[in-house]
Amino acid sequence: MKVENTQVQMRKGILEFCILEIIARGEVYASDMLEELTAARMIVVEGTLYPLLTRLKNAGLLDYTWKESTSGPPRKYYTLTQDGQDFLHQLRLTWEDVQDSIRIIRQKPHLNGAATPTP
C-alpha cells in the first residue's frame, strides 16, 4: 500500500470544504480557485474542479454570475447561496469535531505509557 494513495484520498475528502471556504470569502473566478487549491496542494488537475463546481451548483450551494473580462470572453464568478452558507457552517462544525477526535486519538498514551508526540 502506498502512502500517496491515502494522502490523495484524504485531500479529496476535504476538497469540497476547501472550495466552499474559498468562495465564502467573496465571489471568485474558477481559475483563481484552481490556483489557490494547487498552491495549497489540494488539487493537481483542472479536470477535478469543474465537475465539483457543477455538482455544488446543482445542489443549490453555489450560484454564479457572468462578468465581462478585459482579457477575453466573459468569466463565471461563483458565490455561495444561503444554503451554501448553511452547509459550510455545518462542515466547519464537523471539521472542528474531526480535529478534536484526531487530537484525542493522537494524544492517547502508548501501551508503554509514553504519549504520542504532537507536532
Please give the CATH architecture of the domain at 3-81: Orthogonal Bundle
Low-confidence stretches: none
CATH superfamily of the domain at 3-81: Winged helix-like DNA-binding domain superfamily/Winged helix DNA-binding domain
Head-to-tail CA distance between termini: 25 Å
Percentage of β-strand residues: 15-25%
Number of H/I helices: 4
Structure summary, number of beta strands: 3
Taking the sheet with the most strands, its summary is: 3 strands, antiparallel
Taking all residues together, what is the mean pLDDT? Answer: 90
Tell me the name of the CATH class of the domain at 3-81: Mainly Alpha
Order of helices and strands: HEHHEEH
Domain Transcription regulator PadR N-terminal: 19-89
Pfam families: PadR
Protein name: PadR family transcriptional regulator
What does this protein structure show overall?
The chain is α+β, with helices and mostly antiparallel strands. The chain contains 4 helices and 3 strands. It has a domain at 3-81: Arc Repressor Mutant, subunit A. It has helices at residues 3-24, 30-39, 46-58, 82-107, and strands spanning 28-29, 62-69, 72-80. Strands 1-3-2 form a 3-stranded antiparallel β-sheet. It comes from Hymenobacter elongatus.
